[in-house]
Amino acid sequence: MSSVGVLVTGGAGFIGSNFLHLLAETRPHWKLVNLDVLSYAGNLENLSALEKETNYTFVHGDVGKSEDVGRALDEVGSGPTWVIHFAAESHVDRSIQSALPFVETNVMGVQVLLEECRARGVERFLNVGTDEVYGSLGETGLFTEETPLAPNSPYSASKAAGDFLVRAAFHTHGFPGLITRCSNNYGPYQFPEKLIPLMIANASGDKELPVYGDGKNVRDWLYVRDHCEALLTVLEKGTPGEVYNIGGNNEYPNIRIVRMILEVLEKPESLIRFVTDRPGHDQRYAIDASKIRRELGWEPRFTFEKALPETIAWYRENSEWLENLQSGSYRDYYERQYGARA
Ligand code: NAD
Ligand code: DAU
């Protein structure tokens, strides 16, 4: 597969940047184009190591603007083109404060992207989705690909709408869309508004750790490298029209995660603050990933016991990366590198 050109949307975010690093390492002959609007969550510092690569190009633009998508697809060139769509508003708490940006990017953005990709004859299109579209579980049970969608937050509702648009493009137009739905990721380059990096950042600075409600909500954690390898597997081997769940079979209540972080950092539990619960807070997510294992042969390689301490070490070793996010100076990176304001 030496001549594939891949458009990665949202490549300056957490999972997108990890995915670009994976491609640069393992698919050095592929042409890589990253289309990113550089929202608050986009950080080109995540990709500084890729800038010297001749097969990597950054395009500053919005997935919701057809001219920007067209420019990015032009950059990929005329050979076989695959698209992997990460770009999104991704934080549940922000969607509770203000839902419209989620509808603009996660719904309208998907449709604009689909129309441009269909017009250009894109050969494979992978929509990176979330298990949150399935809603919330009680103490038992797992989400399968057949679980009915029942999103509970504006974020998950907008992601469900995006999935449905991809499904409709496949059924109506024969567009080669694939959908994945993954559980909570952790690892390097995650914006410190999400549970694990926020708790690492606060504990490192001896600040309070805000735990919503009673801390007993459960998430199914997956190391971001495992997620990226699963996405590459689906991009290369998945069947268009299909949905693949991705998860690590690794459930923990939030309070356990917070205590593990404090233990590794040798910080006191007195930093924990139980605060007002998130409105509509989903109780439990847990993924049945047997379909991708059975049909495509993917399995997670990293254990939580090993990858969580390594993740904590990464944030400690990359304190400048974290400081630049906290000060806001990461937003000047585009100007410094490309000579114009993002
Ligand atoms: P993120 O918030 O870290 O990054 C999102 C990226 O998209 C940023 O670089 C941002 O600048 C870019 N972006 C936002 N709006 C855009 C627009 N209109 N046009 C172009 N670029 C835009 O998100 P993440 O955590 O890396 O998540 C990536 C994808 O994976 C999302 O679709 C998310 O729903 C999904 N997902 C995330 C998780 C998780 O645990 N983080 C789990 C399952 C699925
Ligand atoms: O399940 C996949 C989803 O996981 C992705 O689709 C989302 O993009 C991603 O943000 C994540 O959603 P969550 O809402 O599960 O992640 P978050 O890190 O915001 O919260 C994880 C849990 O921790 C959740 O139960 C809320 C709780 N929490 C979170 C924060 C930020 C706290 O207790 N305190 C906090 O300060």
What does this structure look like?
The chain is α/β, with parallel strands linked by helices and 342 residues long. It has one domain (5-338): 3-Layer(aba) Sandwich (Rossmann fold), CATH 3.40.50. It has 12 helices and 13 strands. The strands form 4 sheets. It has a 7-stranded parallel β-sheet, sandwiched between helices. Strands 7-10 form a two-stranded parallel sheet. It has a two-stranded parallel ribbon with strand order 8-13. β1, α1 and β2 form a beta-alpha-beta unit. α4 (100-119) packs parallel to α5. The longest helix has 20 residues, at 100-119. It starts with a strand and ends with a helix. 45% of the residues are buried. Residues 90-92, 130-132, 183-184, 194-195, 198, 210-212, 217, 219, 254, 278, 285 line the site of 2'deoxy-thymidine-5'-diphospho-alpha-D-glucose.
Task: Supply database-style keywords.
about 350 residues, alpha/beta, Rossmann fold, seven-stranded parallel sheet, two-stranded parallel ribbon, binds nicotinamide-adenine-dinucleotide, binds 2'deoxy-thymidine-5'-diphospho-alpha-D-glucose
Question: What is the CATH first-level class name?
Answer: Alpha Beta
Work out the number of β strands.
13
Profile the largest sheet.
Answer: 7 strands, parallel
Please provide the ordered H/E string of secondary-structure elements.
EHEEHEHHEHEEHEEEHEEHEHHHH
Hetero groups: nicotinamide-adenine-dinucleotide, 2'deoxy-thymidine-5'-diphospho-alpha-D-glucose
Poorly predicted parts: none
The CATH topology corresponds to: Rossmann fold
- Can you say what the CATH homologous superfamily is? NAD(P)-binding Rossmann-like Domain
End-to-end separation in angstroms reads 34 Å
What is the total domain count? 1
- CATH architectural group: 3-Layer(aba) Sandwich
Query: Which class best fits the helix and strand makeup?
Result: alpha/beta
* Outline: globular
* Strand order in the largest sheet: 3-2-1-4-5-6-11
Q: How many H/I helices? A: 12
Q: What percentage of residues falls in helices of 4 or more residues?
A: 40-55%
Beta content: 15-25%
Indicate the multimeric state: single chain
**Average pLDDT for all residues:** 96
Rg over C-alpha atoms, rounded to the nearest angstrom: 19 Å
